[in-house]
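Much of our argument rests on the idea that a fold can be written as discrete symbols. Part of our work consisted of pairing the sequence of a single chain with a tokenised description of its backbone. The amino acid sequence and the backbone structure tokens for this protein are reproduced below.
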Amino acid sequence: MTDTHGVWMTAQAKEKLLAELAELSAPQDVSAGEEVDEQQARQARIHQIHDLLAVAVVGQDPPDDGVAEPGMVLTVRYGDGDTETFLLGVRDDDQSGLEVYSPQSPLGMAITGARPGEQRSYPVPSGASVTVTLLDAVPYGRHQTQHPA
């Protein structure tokens, strides 16, 4: 999930991860009878959060060059004509009202690197292929300035 180039996230996503880490790292009530599986799951999540935060790029907007990449708000048109605007980044409880897609999601992997007008396809769990066209890509900060929550 991590890479050497960093993982783009909003400041809200980082705060949420830090709060989750604090909660997971808090001393546990031994009398709660936590199962070994639960302890291992908690430790795995702590490790995952540490790894993510170690490479986090927080709120630094990518270049305003129209290329779809993490940190950009993308507007796409699906093959059926529906359009959607979303943030390509780490999922969080961002209050902007935007849907957030991970760059590692099928849509995220397909659309990354696209320029406006480019069409890409990606598989869905049913085995079908979905076609999507990039209409617009703007840095998250610019989008927030133009569309305050």
